[in-house]
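Good morning,

Both structures are done.
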Amino acid sequence: MDIFSSPRLYTARESPHRERTVSAMGIMDKAKEFANNEENTDKVLDKGAEFAKDKLGQDKADKVDKARDAIDDKLGDNQGNDQQQ
């Protein structure tokens, strides 16, 4: 290709980026599926809370636990629904 030729224009079906778009949607679907599983979110939140406690110190542990619980209420199987116990 010389410097004076114009770049090729693609239709939506011919786009070389089409495969990336499809795989990106697959990744988003997997991320949503992961986030909707209570067991997965609990593991991630527990690790995050432990990491935060290690970095911030045990004097902030109660605030870390409150933040972890607030996030847990928004994620997982319960999806922010009020838990009746």
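Second structure follows.
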Amino acid sequence: MKLSDYLTQEGETITSFAKRIERSTSTVSRLVRGLTDPDGATVRRIAEATNNKVQPNDFYSDENAIEGGPRQPEPSPPGEFQKAS
């Protein structure tokens, strides 16, 4: 289950959830919008706070990608090397 779906289902605000997992409101907001990936400690806190309804894989599957979110670099065509940024 996506974190945004959990919060909606439970009627919980980002602010109150952030307090429960001891993270900033801005961090939780970015997680909900898919703009950042949680670190290991945050994933564990979220899983615990949601009674495992939100799992680590819920943050990393393609299903949760949103337009405007983090993007992976395009693969180079065969025989070409990708320039380092």
